[in-house]
Design a protein that fits this description.
single chain; iron; Ubiquitin-like (UB roll); iron-sulfur; alpha/beta; FNR_nucleotide-bd; Rossmann fold; 3 domains; Elongation Factor Tu (Ef-tu), domain 3; 7 helices; globular; 5-stranded parallel β-sheet
């Protein structure tokens, strides 16, 4: 049987979890079980206004009767989080994708270090639930601006793994703040690091880990938003469709996706920020100018794939597997 491409769900509960953060509990409209998911998974949610946004699942993966999402009302929202907070209500019907996972646990790891910044706690909390259930060794650090902005604090306090979670507040005293370089100063064999949160937080964690010599294979991360804008060095280039040889010019102020769309070539997109990987496209020839937050540095260096929603070309031409 072919798996459904969309799921019809109802918002059975909407709750305030912290300042500017709400949760949505979703259940299947027909009352049946939802597709299973693994820790770190997200779903694409179709929102009012024709928007599609990705939100991580933050309930225990053992549950099949619901999906739980946590959504920050972002001051810089492009409309998605604002729609969730202002238009989606209990009883609302939504269409979502089946769960996808680009941020999976490494189950062969000897120990897990979970680092959450702000709303990045959603996939990290799901991971903690799973690791606790399987008896794995882990430690979790949760950094937020203040206690008032700390979502799911009560749930964590009541959990079986509460003693393995360390809270860090930006407005608290210096002694309790997260010392990222100290935490990651020495790579540890068999230990894997997972991080999700605002870009500045993730850059700090990944930068400290890489500077300390942590192998890339032990670093796992998921960006949920990025600021992708024009750069001073952006220039015009061409893309070639390998199937037909057709050459499509890309202007300096155009994305590849925009240029392809104008030429009648549709590439599936979702976030349009280089985060979700929906538009990932194989590159057969040429050098890419990567601007995404999805590929690892090693994957970017290979220049054999890129995200045309944001990335460009360093060479005059890219040959795409389209």
């Amino acid at each position: 049987m072919t798996a459904p491409t969309t799921l019809n769900v109802r918002v059975v509960r909407k709750a305030v979890e912290a300042e500017d953060i709400c949760s949505l509990e979703l259940a299947a409209v027909d009352g049946g079980p939802l597709p299973a998911f693994s820790a770190g998974s997200h779903v694409d949610v179709q929102l009012p206004g024709g928007l599609t946004r990705q939100y991580s699942l933050c309930n225990d993966p053992a549950e099949t009767h619901r999906y739980l999402l946590g959504v920050l009302k972002d001051a810089a929202s492009r409309g998605g989080s604002r729609a969730v907070h202002e238009q989606v209500q209990e009883g609302s019907l939504l269409q979502i994708s089946p769960p996808k996972n680009h941020f999976a646990l490494a189950h062969d790891a000897q120990r897990h270090l979970l680092l959450a910044g702000g709303i990045g706690v959603t996939p990290i909390l799901c991971m903690a639930e799973r690791l606790a259930r399987t008896g794995a060794a882990f430690e979790m650090h949760y950094a937020t601006r203040s206690k008032a902005r700390t979502a799911f604090a009560g749930r964590i306090a009541a959990s079986s793994f509460a003693d393995r979670v360390h809270f860090h507040f930006d407005d608290g005293d210096a002694a309790q703040k997260l010392d990222i370089p100290a935490l990651l100063g020495t790579p540890r064999a068999g230990e894997h690091v997972y991080v999700c949160g605002p870009k500045g937080f993730m850059d700090a964690v990944l930068g400290a880990a890489r500077a300390a010599g942590w192998p890339e294979t032990q670093l796992h991360y998921e960006f949920f938003g990025a600021e992708v804008g024009p750069s001073a060095g952006d220039g015009a280039f061409e893309v070639v469709l390998s199937s037909s040889g057709r050459v499509i010019p890309v202007a300096a102020d155009q994305t590849v996706v925009q240029a392809l769309d104008a030429a009648g070539v549709l590439v599936p997109t979702s976030c349009e920020q280089g985060v979700c990987g929906t538009c990932l496209t194989r590159v057969l020839e040429g050098e890419c100018d990567h601007k995404d937050m999805y590929l690892t540095p090693e994957e970017q260096a290979a220049h054999d794939q890129f995200l045309p929603c944001c990335s460009r070309a360093k060479s005059p031409r890219l040959v795409l597997d389209l």
